[in-house]
Design goal:
4-stranded mixed β-sheet; disordered N terminus
């Protein structure tokens, strides 16, 4: 099963802007770049590869003797994920054709994920990007059927061809199910967006349909477990139930996140740096930390700013560093030692709000930002933890 990840834009900023180094954790083992797009493989893929190898080996053993049958079965597992990779690459290439930057392609336990930086600007482009993946699998399945009819192949090659043809057909059709986070859900979103002129309506509807698809997958797995499990099937029915439960949970979580993301977007225009700002106490760099904290408490301030003797801001004292410093050491440490120097990206206008605010936080990830009035006076400090809390509970 594959899905195209929702764009980074529009996600809750919790856990995002708060990273001081600005680096995004790698989603898996780096396998290099294809067409300039980073490719990662999650460690979970190796677990699936082993399971696919063991399950498929029973069919291969009818054609090839052991231990060579295990090698052939593992080859099938690799080729299967090769089909998943081509599926995701088609999403990525289509997105890049429309000028959308692609962050990465990742293969994982349930298939793959294409991380696209921004949303498609129109429902038509959203539709084409989403449809590119399933279409690729259906084309591969068609080519497989054509090759099966036209070529005289050895038994091993024929077995692999038939298995891959069926797998591509299954992946293509499954991803067309009409619910997020599957590609079919993105098609529904694009269609509703086109009909109503509102991408939000499409995402909400596709998210709720995705939840229904998740329940359907679980019911289908329960049916297989109930009516196909026998003493002679090796427990395949119960394995189908386990796998369907895993897929159902993945779809349910993805659909729920899509619905939640739209609620987050409703809040973004209301997000105001001025409303979230903490009062700041200005101290010089040589002020003992204990004294700086005392002044902040006296001023009912939630932040400490390093300034020169003329009151010009020079740096921000890191709240986590202050909290981590034991009280008995605070008289012997200066506030300047726990500060971070200011640069242009860490100084924001007090009136910044909405998407402009989130863009500024993404551009220069930090834990605190200085807010200034149009005349240059210090208004306060914006803590990213406060921005995160503004989105909590959605």
């Amino acid at each position: 099963m594959t899905n195209s990840a929702p764009p980074t834009q529009g996600r809750t900023p919790a856990g995002g802007p708060g990273h001081d180094d600005g680096r995004t954790p790698r989603p898996g083992l780096s396998m290099g770049r294809v067409l300039g797009i980073p490719l990662y493989v999650s460690p979970s893929w190796f677990i699936v590869a082993v399971l696919v190898t063991v399950m498929f080996e029973g069919q291969v053993h009818d054609v090839v003797a052991r231990p060579l049958s295990y090698l052939v079965a593992f080859t099938y597992a690799v080729l299967l994920y090769g089909s998943v990779f081509v599926h995701e690459l088609s999403h990525a290439v289509t997105a890049r054709i429309f000028g959308l930057p692609v962050r990465s392609v990742t293969l994982h336990v349930l298939g793959g994920e294409t991380s696209i930086e921004r949303e498609a600007p129109t429902p038509g482009r959203e539709f084409l990007i989403a449809f590119a993946g399933p279409l690729t699998n259906l084309v591969l399945a068609g080519l497989g059927l054509l090759a099966h009819a036209a070529l005289a192949l050895p038994d091993v090659a024929l077995l692999l061809l038939e298995a891959l043809t069926f797998a591509n057909l299954l992946v293509g059709l499954f991803n067309l199910l009409p619910g997020l986070p599957l590609d079919g859900g993105r098609l529904v979103r694009a269609a509703v967006w086109k009909a109503t002129g509102r991408s939000r309506s499409g995402a909400i509807i596709a998210g709720w349909v995705g939840r229904a698809v998740a329940i359907g997958c679980l019911i289908a797995g329960a049916y297989l477990a109930t009516y196909t499990t026998t003493a002679d099937d090796g427990g395949i029915g119960w394995l189908a139930l386990l796998w369907s439960a895993l897929i159902a949970s993945f779809i349910w979580v993805g659909a729920t996140q899509a619905i939640r993301a739209e609620r987050v977007r409703d809040r973004i225009p209301l997000l105001s740096a001025r409303a979230l700002a903490r009062r700041a106490t200005l101290v010089t760099a040589d002020t003992p930390l204990a004294e700086a904290v005392r002044r902040a408490h006296a001023d009912h301030a939630g932040a400490i700013v390093i300034a020169d003797h003329d009151g010009r801001p020079l740096g921000l004292v890191n709240e986590k560093a202050v909290t981590a410093t034991p009280e008995h050491r605070r008289p012997w440490i200066t506030a300047g030692e726990l500060s971070r120097g200011l640069h242009d990206d860490l100084t924001l206008p007090a009136d910044i709000a909405g998407d402009d605010l989130l863009d500024a936080l993404r551009r220069a990830p930090a834990s605190e930002y200085l807010l200034v009035e149009p005349d240059g006076r210090v208004y306060g400090v914006l803590a990213v933890s406060d921005v995160d809390r503004a989105f909590s509970g959605i």
